[in-house]
What does this fold into?
Amino acid sequence: MLYSSIIDTPQEKRKFEQIYEEYRQTMFFTAYRILHDSYEAEDAVQNAFLRIIDNLEKIDLTNRHKTKGFVVIVVENATIDLYRKKKRENAVSYDELSTWSACAETSDLDSKMHVHSVLQRLPIQYKTVLLLKYSHGYNNPEISEILRISEENVRQRIVRAKKKLSQMLEQEGES
Amino acid sequence: MRPVADDVFLFTYIPEEEETILTDIPAEADLHHEFSSHFEKKMQKLIKHERRNKLRRILIQTAKVAMITILLLVIVNTALVCSVDAYREQFFKLVGSITVDYRQIPGSGEVPFCGTYNHTYGPSARATVKGEYVDSEHCYSCYQNTTSCTKCGHTVISRDLLLHDMKLSSAISNGSCQTWVYTCHNCGQKRATEIHPCYYDPLNRYCILPI
It folds into this structure.
């Protein structure tokens, strides 16, 4: 592991240790749900922790709900990146990733509201930026830091996510 | 009316969607995955890998960048020097000129440069000594001796060679002579002058004097 991410202060160290102790099982569960492989899921969790170190200042441990949401988003994103890296030869598309998203939640689909069923089927790359922006309230530069993508990429993903969501809602409405 | 995915819509439904996602995840206490020792080891290492001093981290990062840059420059320069003859010759000349002081053993007799050399001494029998630069390769000086014949008083002029290059002098001879002999062209008087230590070259009538 390349330690490009470094914990700067003892306070941050304590914060990181707390996140590690309280959320590592949740993180593993999230990663395993996508990858279905323990070793790869652990790798994804490690990568997610490195990203968390880079964004420690954005985490407010007093708000456990938000912290859990943030941690889940980060680990999902790290997992997807790992998944795509492993499958690079096959060039995994957003559609393929969205298949996971839909499958993982299929059991609950019937009991969800119409809009939520659409949101659940939204490709995870799009859903991640929407969650960070509209649920956690981060701006585009902050999202680009968290997801390690460019600001332009963030902006594009949000635009595409909205477009895709509108299309899906329209199709759902017609059917 | 069909819902539109605008900001109002998203601010309303996305937090609810996140709530749903988080509800679907079991509580941390209900999950009991046993992480591999490899994972635990790496995570502990990561936690311990704390750096208190941010300035130190910046300095280390800067030093790393500087070292990489210098290394790249050295590699490029070496490649250039090795591939171009002119650069290569120039390079070795430069190295030679820089390291000349370190390439000789002090007191061994080698003179560190070849060029105009102001002699602080000469063969003891010489009344007049004129130092002049003769050869840049072997670095020696020609001494013009102007002394008088002890018998007829005729001025005797001879040229003596003073070598500053021990390699050459060693090549000429490894012996030494105790006397410098010359003959007066006017009266035939021979004169012997002690010069120690030196080597007399009878062919050229040069006294070779190691420094």
Notes: Residues 29 and 36 of chain A are 10 Å apart (CA to CA). Chain A touches chain B through 55 residues (CB under 8 Å). The helical segments of chain A are 10-35, 38-54, 64-86, 94-109, 114-121, 124-135, 140-147, 151-174. The two ends of chain A are 49 Å apart (CA to CA).
